[in-house]
Amino acid sequence: MQNVKxxxxxxxxxxxxxxxxxxxxxxxxxxxxxxEMESTILNELELLSSKYAGGEEILKExxxxxxxxxxxxxxxxxxxxPFAKVIALNxxxxxxxxxxxxxxxxxxxxxxxxxxxxFLQCDVDVVGxxxxxxxxxxxxxxxxxxxxLEIPIVxxxxxxxxxxxxLGAMGVPADLSSSVMLTLDKLDKIGREGVRKELADKVIDQxxxxxxxxxVDLKEPTFEQITRTYNLEPGRGAREVQIxxxxxxxxxxxxxxxxxxxxxxxxSFYTGTVYEIYDASxxxxxxxxxxGRYDAxxxxxxxxxxxxxxxxxxxxxxxxxxxxxRDRVVETNRPHVVVIPIGEAVPEGLMAAAALRNRGIRxxxxxxxxxxxxxxxxxxxxxxxxxxxIGEDEAAAGxxxxxxxxxxxxxxxxxxxxxxxxxxxxxx
Length: 428
Known about the structure:
The chain is of the alpha+beta class. The chain has helices at 12-31, 45-48, 56-59, 80-89, 133-148, 160-169, 177-185, 187-201, 206-216, 223-229, 236-250, 297-301, 318-325, 346-358, 372-382, 392-397, 415-427, and strands at residues 35-36, 42-44, 64-66, 72-75, 97-106, 118-127, 153-159, 257-259, 273-279, 289-293, 311-317, 337-341, 363-365, 386-390, 400-404, 410-413.
């Protein structure tokens, strides 16, 4: 008996950290006025494999299923396409529409540190805002999330439209532009020689290949330097870079959000700005999150490419974030009180526990009939502040014994009095 490769069970301290991260994300998402959504895990294969969806790289990793009606289905590989489906199926949703979702996604890909086959994604998306203020707000949101998690980050960003204009100026044919972008996106992984080899494999003209490699050789190129070097005309992509760059400077994010002209993200559905989040200390190499603008997907999915659904999103990689926080200790939600029935007083113990829980007091019922001394020692070691002892004599008299675990003081009280005492002291 073992877990499927790339899947894990979470409990104890690790689950406490995961819940803490999710709570932080939820707090920030809702603070930024995003509403929660829950989309379907099972989807029609035709939707997930649409040419407008994830692209060839992801489709290789998709889990295919067949139901008893011989329908072709798949497990979602991200939260973006199911979200686009929801918008397409509900044209009455008022825009702008801001949603967040946390849910499991599945990819049959290689397993490594921070990359699993069943993993949790946490997404935020905005539909109905065409301008770069949506991207800037999501970048602010990302910076706030990692500030609260105390993880220093760098958010690298680019614009696929601008990169396409740049490659066009280098002579790259339009039909090869997306493929060359994918190669440049892997620069950090495969290096200059790897880029050269991939370009050669794609039968790129030698002169064009030299142009692309000279671009790769630029040291920390800025947007201004690139436009001067390649005499770029001010196209739409370039204008979008200028506007967003100015916005980021004015809101004080220029040190966290760094322009990276080689970035394109592998997914072909991105139409403008793209971004990827990394650990600023470089101790962890995998991405902590990413996203971008995908204005065309929703209209394409419903066969109405003439309809405008300007959309931008950001996804946080839970497993990567957990790798950064694995050694952190998070206080778990320990009980406020342990109720210990003694002898035949189990019914009275159950009633006392129910009454305390109805008051919102986290309560443990000790029913394993261990020796009293061991039960109290265990509760003390866990830091549980109070113990309630109910024996047959107390049950007959309609009272209980309330023990303060820090100083050992005991009080004999009625149940209602014990509720009030514990509530009052927990709030103090």
